[in-house]
Write a structure and sequence with these properties.
about 375 residues, tRNA-splicing ligase RtcB, eight-stranded mixed beta sheet, 18 strands
Length: about 375
């Protein structure tokens, strides 16, 4: 861990290098009057919108929509199956069927889906406006870095992984409440306007509304991954004869929660970071073509009991698509059966940091339990 004294409070970083723009964003966070103790940067840190992705902010009394992000509750569910191995024909069959049958990108289900959370949603305008379309979005993958994968575990089992979030709920909630925060900030002058870090007092009507809406999006995201895994496992079971899932690990990595750290009750914003309480299980994915890890948290207080949510980008999506060719991307995915480029190479393995270095840099935050090697990948 490296410590920077560049603002009002220190910045503690588990990354070997922090790009200038991400560090500038961390300095902005460190100068917020309501930021507590220090800013924590995870080993996968890179530039985000307002706050760096792979950043952890503890605040006193103020919650910041852009410090949670636009895909509220984005996260992963990993499932250990009873299958010990797959041949390429089985992997290909699962990839083809999942790519064909599970809605990806902007595609939705043709019939509305059921979820207990639809029965009594919070009476909040931005949620109620999305309710009809959300019934068709539930159990859909989305695009970007969202994926379905089959992984060969170092424990001898095949694992399934699903990476997705709260779909349009998260985007709409983030956009709506960030605009409200910006408008209020014109009066309060709490944050410099060009930093994209406008906040809401948690005990205000707007702050409470955002907190309730954010938690609803978290619940939706969790159910979305559960239903995606259910669909994915049905396809996997038919191809392999699997009889049961032996274990599941489920995590969020874009959210804020009320916690106690260093003797104070604070609002912990984890943007592209996951909670790593002592003994808590987590999932840290690499990229489409590199290993991922099932980990156990060590509960390190210096990171606000957090760790990285993945490998972290080394180039923006735009830069990746300017520099990475299909031949380069295909070569990096050699030996892995996959679908989903569609002319977009922003998720190619070389767009990401070395996952082994990331894991090494956070060895005081998590203990690796199972190493996962990709067998088949469906990109959103």
């Amino acid at each position: 861990m490296e410590v920077f004294y560049l603002g009002r409070i220190p910045i503690k970083s588990w990354a070997r290098e922090v790009e200038k723009e991400a560090l500038d964003q961390a300095i902005n966070l460190s100068n917020l009057p309501f930021a507590c103790s220090h800013i924590a940067l995870m080993a996968d840190v890179h530039t985000g919108f307002g706050m760096p992705i792979g950043g952890v902010l503890a605040s006193k009394g103020v919650i910041i929509p852009n410090a949670v992000g636009v895909d509220i509750g984005c996260g992963i569910i990993a499932a250990k199956t009873d299958i010990k191995g797959m041949d390429s024909r089985e992997i290909g069959r699962v990839v083809d069927r999942a790519h064909r049958n599970i809605p990806l990108g902007f595609n939705h289900h043709k019939k509305p889906r059921d979820w207990v959370g639809f029965d009594n949603p919070p009476n909040i305008k931005v949620i109620l406006e999305e309710m009809d379309s959300a019934r068709y979005q539930l159990g859909t993958l989305g695009g970007g870095n969202h994926f379905l994968t089959m992984e060969k575990g170092s424990d001898g089992h095949v694992w399934l992984m699903v990476h997705s979030g709260s779909r349009n709920f998260g985007y709409k909630i983030a956009e709506y409440y960030n605009k409200i925060a910006e408008k209020l900030n014109e009066k309060t002058k709490l944050v410099p306007p060009k930093q994209d870090l406008a906040g809401l007092y948690l005990d205000s009507e707007e702050g409470q509304e955002y907190f309730i809406a954010m938690n609803y999006a978290l619940d939706f995201a969790k159910e979305n991954r559960r239903q995606l895994l259910e669909q994915f496992y049905d396809i996997f079971r038919e191809a392999t004869g699997s009889e049961k899932i032996l274990e599941k690990v489920s995590i969020h990595h874009n959210y804020a929660s009320i916690e106690t750290h260093f003797g104070e009750k604070v609002i912990v914003h984890r943007k592209g970071a996951i909670r790593a309480e002592k003994g808590e299980l987590g999932v840290i994915p690499g990229s489409m073509g590199t290993p991922s890890y099932i980990v156990e948290g060590l509960g390190n207080p210096e990171s606000f009991k957090s760790c990285s949510h993945g490998a972290g980008r080394v180039m923006s999506r735009r830069q990746a698509n300017r520099t990475i060719t299909k031949e380069m991307a295909d070569q990096a995915m050699e030996g892995i059966i996959y679908k989903g480029w569609k002319g977009d190479f922003s998720e190619a393995p070389m767009a990401y940091k070395d996952i082994e270095e990331v894991m090494k840099n956070q060895k005081d935050l998590v203990k690796p339990l199972v190493k996962l090697e990709p067998l088949g990948v469906i990109k959103g």
